[in-house]
Design a protein that fits this description.
Elements: E1 2-7, E2 10-14, E3 19-25, E4 28-32, H1 40-49, E5 57-61, H2 67-70, H3 73-80, E6 83-87, H4 91-95, H5 109-119, E7 132-134, E8 139-140, E9 146-150, E10 159-163, E11 168-172, E12 175-177, E13 184-186, H6 193-204, E14 210-213, H7 223-231
Parallel strand pairs: 4-5, 5-6, 6-7, 11-14
Antiparallel strand pairs: 1-2, 2-3, 3-4, 8-9, 9-10, 10-11, 12-13
Helix pairs in contact: 1-3, 6-7
Length: 233
């Protein structure tokens, strides 16, 4: 796992598939997404290397239930005592109460998905025993007030996390950066692509300066412009 500093208060954690983020407020940290199953110990090591005890991570905000984002949540929550938060529409899948719905694949997405699945750990998908449910619209005690934005389309319970005081937006998989040329594109492997495009426009209207994606390099300046481009599909 690679750890990349984006801002003095913000780190990107890059896994073989997908990525997560650490945000610092004083002595406390928030983890946005948690990587695939087996990532908990790696995240704990990263926090320790940053000079903090893993117990300084007070919460894990999951942008959606897919395994490359929620798979490591149970393990890291057990190590740190962090509270796990997810939208109420995705929470049952994170808990393991029911299997989550499969994406509606476009033909060109199928080989990409097959390659991604081969990079994920095999075995059981670890899930947190308890999840605090979000509805969207909440303001969390992160970065001077972080708003939870419900952006269904990638999954029904997908959320973004917006820190307006810092111009930072965590988009989850609603938006991505292309591995080919780094261009900002709508996310793939969605339930409803049309709603994803609408969500890209919704996120652009928040006028973020920095956009942190679930896949691909973040945009670190004038992110709203890139998000508007993505909304055009």
């Amino acid at each position: 796992m690679d750890v990349i500093e984006l801002l003095p208060r913000l780190r990107l954690l890059r896994f073989p598939v997908g990525q997560a983020y650490l945000w610092r407020d004083g002595e406390e940290w928030t983890l946005v997404d948690a990587g695939p199953a087996g990532s908990g110990a790696l995240i704990a090591e990263a926090v320790t290397a940053l000079g903090s005890d893993p117990r300084a991570v007070r919460r894990i905000v999951l942008t959606h239930f897919h395994e490359d984002h929620a798979g490591g949540a149970a393990e890291f929550a057990a190590l740190s005592g962090a509270e796990v938060l997810a939208h109420r529409l995705d929470a049952p899948f994170v808990r393991g109460d029911a299997p989550g719905p499969e994406p509606v694949f476009e033909d060109w997405e199928r080989p990409l998905h097959e390659r991604a699945v081969r990079l994920l750990p095999t075995g059981d998908f670890a899930r947190p025993a308890e999840v605090t449910e979000l509805a969207g619209g909440e303001v969390l005690d992160i970065g001077g007030g972080a708003r939870v934005v419900h952006v269904p389309g990638h999954t029904e319970g997908s959320v973004a996390l917006h820190l307006p005081q810092h111009g930072v937006l965590f988009t989850g998989d609603t938006v991505a950066a292309s591995p080919v040329d780094g261009s900002v594109i709508p996310g793939v492997f969605n339930l409803d692509r049309d709603r994803v495009l609408a969500a890209c426009g919704q996120l652009a209207d928040l006028d973020p300066d920095i956009a942190c994606f679930g896949h691909g390099d973040p945009v670190t300046a004038r992110a709203s412009r890139a998000l508007r481009h993505a909304a055009r599909g």
